[in-house]
């Protein structure tokens, strides 16, 4: 029932022993994998038979390297084009976002609510406020509209006192003009 504790040196020795055994097993497994790979290559890939010898092989390899270089150049050019176009797309997206605004505007739904209901929702149920929005509106007299309609549909912005002054001035002009003509006929020189 009572277990004896191992000393730290014994524990360290056992740990290092386990690690060395595991390392040996891993090395053996790696060797087996390499042998199995070689065996598979021999079975599935027959040896390369070149009738021309090493000179033709060298020419063939030079050709392959030249083709690889051409393809790498094309790949590099295409990669540059793609990078430029992605940068252009990002710039255009940024411009679109700047033009639209930073945030999407949410679609607003129409809510039917009276002014009293809005105040009650804002202030809470403790405050009872009734608001008549029509009380603050300017009242238009019916007589003023009818008078404007009789005059031809145009409503004058002048006050009543201005209108009386204009009427009296018009009368004076008419009468004054007639009196000037009478005065002119009386003042003809006597010869």
From TrEMBL:
Organism: Oncorhynchus tshawytscha
Keyword Acetylation: yes
Coiled-coil regions listed in the entry: 23-102
Keywords recorded for this protein, A-Z: Acetylation, Actin-binding, Coiled coil, Muscle protein
The protein, known as: Troponin I, fast skeletal muscle
Gene Ontology terms for molecular function: actin binding
Highest taxon in the source lineage: Eukaryota
Entry-linked InterPro entries: Troponin, Troponin_I, Troponin_sf
GO BP, one annotated term: skeletal muscle contraction
Disordered: region residues: 144-191
Gene Ontology CC annotation, any one: troponin complex
SUPFAM superfamilies listed in its UniProt record: Troponin coil-coiled subunits
Gene3D superfamilies: 1.20.5.350, 6.10.250.180
Acetylation among keywords: yes
């Amino acid at each position: 029932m009572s277990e004896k504790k191992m000393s730290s040196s014994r524990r360290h020795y056992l740990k290092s022993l386990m690690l060395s055994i595991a390392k040996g097993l891993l090395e053996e497994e790696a060797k087996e994998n390499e042998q199995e790979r070689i065996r598979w290559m021999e079975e599935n890939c027959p040896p390369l038979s070149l009738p021309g010898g090493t000179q033709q092989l060298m020419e063939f390899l030079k050709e392959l390297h030249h083709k690889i270089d051409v393809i790498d150049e094309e790949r590099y050019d295409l990669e540059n084009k793609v990078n430029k176009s992605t940068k252009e797309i990002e710039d255009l997206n940024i411009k679109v976002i700047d033009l639209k605004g930073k945030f999407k505007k949410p679609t607003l739904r129409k809510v039917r609510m009276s002014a009293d209901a809005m105040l009650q929702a804002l202030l809470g149920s403790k405050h009872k406020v009734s608001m008549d929005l029509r009380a603050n509106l300017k009242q238009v007299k019916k007589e003023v509209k009818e008078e404007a309609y009789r005059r031809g549909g145009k409503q004058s912005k002048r006050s009543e006192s201005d209108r009386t002054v204009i009427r009296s001035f018009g009368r004076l002009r008419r009468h004054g003009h007639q009196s000037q003509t009478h005065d002119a006929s009386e003042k003809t020189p006597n010869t």
